[in-house]
Amino acid sequence: MKYLMAGLLALLCGFFLADFLFRQQASEVKTPGNIPFDHALHGDSIGLDCSHCHTGVTYQAHAYLPSKTDCMDCHRLPLTENPGIEKLDSALSRAEEFPWVHKRVLPEHVVFHHGLHFAAGVQCSDCHGSTEKIQKNRYGGERFTMQNCLDCHSGKTFEGRGYKKAAIHCGACHR
Predict the structure, then answer these.
(1) Model's pTM, two decimal places?
(2) Burial, 52: exposed, middle or buried (Cβ in 10 Å; 0-12, 13-18, 19+)?
(3) How does pLDDT run across 54-96, given as a tens digit for each residue?
(4) N or C: which end of the chain has fewer CB within 10 A?
């Protein structure tokens, strides 16, 4: 009996270890029909501001992803006819209204408010990098770390840009 219990315990531990080591990681962003999105084409080429597609970024905590209606509002215009539009229209017609899902990168206990940073004059590219960097890494820029935030809040990151120093006490960003 003693060996049976030990065997069952070992088997159970083996299952937990296997699950931990080999489980599928959740994808950070899902896209309908795997349609590539080019931030540089939308931003640099035609001059769209980030807030055009990422509503809420200028006044809310979140920078929301666009709905399929948001995409098709522009892509239905006669000036944007190209073979890719038909593929986009086909994929979006089968998609949910909000087909793109963003997985939170920051831990749940970290509070970040896009609108407050926008009001302070921080530009999207300050944290997310250029449209070229965003294209390589869907979140843009480097992985966000506490040290990066502290460097910015203490004035080290963008010296000479005129940003005011921000709170660096724990309660300002952690709940």
Answers:
(1) 0.69
(2) middle
(3) 989 999 998 888 888 888 888 776 655 666 777 777 777 788 8
(4) N
